Amino acid sequence: MSILVDDSTRLLVQGITGSEGSFHTQRCIEYGTKVVAGVTPGKGGSKHLGVPVFNTIEKAMAETGANASLMFVPPAFAADGILEAIDAGMPLIICITEGIPVLDMVKVHHYLKGKPTRLIGPNCPGVMSPGKCKAGIMVGEIHLPGNVGVVSRSGTLTYDVVSQLTSLGIGQSTCVGIGGDALPGSTFVDILKLFQADKDTKAVVLIGEIGGTMEQEAAEFISHEMTKPVVAFVAGSTAPPGKRMGHAGAIITGSAGKASEKMRALSRAGVSIAPTPAEIGLTAKKVLERV
Amino acid sequence: MKIHEYQAKALFAQYGIPVPRGRVASTPAEAREIAAEIGDKVVIKAQVYAGGRGKAGGIKLVNNPKEAERAASQLIGTRMVTHQTGAEGVPVSKVLVEEASSVARELYLSILVDGTSHLPVMMASEAGGMEIEEMAQSTPEKIFKSYIDPAIGFQPFQGRKLAYGINLDGGQIGEAARLMTNLYRLFVDKDCSLAEINPLVVTADGKLLALDAKLSFDDNALYRHKDIQQLQDKEQEEPLEIQAHDWGINNYVKMEGDIGCMVNGAGLAMAVNDLIQHCGGRAANFLDIGTLNNTERVVNSFRMFVADHRIKAVLVNIFGGMARVDVIAKGIVEAYQQMNITFPVVIRLAGTNLGEGQRILAESGISFVQAKDFYDGARKVVAAAKGAVK
Q1: Domain A10-120 sits in which CATH superfamily?
Q2: Which ranges of chain A have pLDDT less than 50?
Q3: Which of A64, B71, B238, B278 has its CA 20 to 30 A from that of A259?
């Protein structure tokens, strides 16, 4: 099995006609993802990459039965795009866009409360269930179907970790990039809950980084509610405090934001910490041998 | 993005938040004039982005215009080292000259966006003058918080609750609630990431006054605030970081080591730096090249390494996803053609268009050390920086 996306996913792409939207939609289609609709206001009625394009999400959902949205809308318009998808009742929104203002995301979170939509991202590589559905910008070929769930705040570090796992013969149930922003739509805890409930996920790899307290919240959840083993790494041990390390959310503003604090909290919760980012795959292998 | 205290106070004044009378001076003579205008004891405050300037001698209380001129001359043109700066400090080119206030109480007030509730939160405390971090650790029960519903904004009752919490009374309650409402209005209007008044003082005659002012802004929202963008003082930023920015490399942070790093993706870039340290070396920078597929940014990254005289070796670690490995490889070859690269370069490539990238590097004839993976790359660059590879 898998979480969030699988072969029943009918993907809608917001911003399908833009350059990034086009490039990655093509890759998703090549991987075998069912891309059923695109939305670009003003281009409704046309076809792009063989996919029908609509002016509004509401119409696209009504006509195609789309049940997940992948977003490539530029940052200044992205929050509005997310709000439109929530309003249309889209069950899953995966927002790739990097650079959305924080106060725009405050509005999005406020509107999202009590609604049935799940938001992944923004500023994320997307969600991948190997062999079933690629809804994002990650490299398809490095993945292998299997039983390890991956959840990460990073993009390319996740690619490295996934290829470490794949080269050791460890397949993945689903890989979820929750994104590098300070206010992600879904947190580690949100995704850990799904992995815990997914009967085909046997273990989880969690890749955190400096800033915020999401890893500590994950540790709390793992120690109380998680029965499946978790392997983790937290990037940014060498990051200086007060400096934003690329990601909007990756900034140490207090001691809780430090990598060492996060790894300590996770370790106390029984998580196996990889000694280096290059040994995350090996650590997962050892843990799986014990299961 | 940060701004100076005097700029933040000008914004405060626009939003009806009381600040001491005063102006900014760029020369000691100007400082004397302003002090004469104020006509009383004044405070001379060095304008730097770093906190901790009080302890570093950056705030001076003086009695008359002549002393104001002397104090300003001791600050302007110097470099200030505080616990928040590196050893080289930050330049002082301006001082704020303000009337000295008689302080009865020092309070704390700030707004930021809370990552857990996804809401702006107003925080108030009686322990003004302390850093909020310290406060949160030593006396968390003394920090009063009020989460703000973005649909209705900050409400007067929230202001009253906070004001009573920090033991204000009488007319101060309404005054504080208005001040907080105005601060929230400023926070939202200008897309602040932090608005902090530390200390917010109660003067001897019972009035509230923002004695200090700290504003920083959401970089992602600057596109809609041209007025704020113009306030940035590039002199206060790390020169290498400004240089990188001017060359289109937005995610560059100077670090303390001697190994230059060029990586795609922020998480991977942090992990590379961590791994270098694990292998016994130290990175000179964090550099996330991003995903724009052009060779210019690769060439400019090498320009940064050449400009940075600390560099002993360079590690290129690219896992192509959105970024294509062949484009990166072309950029590296162009960099070798355009400049004299004397330091050893270790290259690890993986991902999209890897074969083509490897072919481009091999056929170029440039001399580099190939790494088979992440770990191998870190080990080899640390060895190279220590002189093992020429």
Answers
A1: NAD(P)-binding Rossmann-like Domain (3.40.50.720)
A2: none
A3: B238
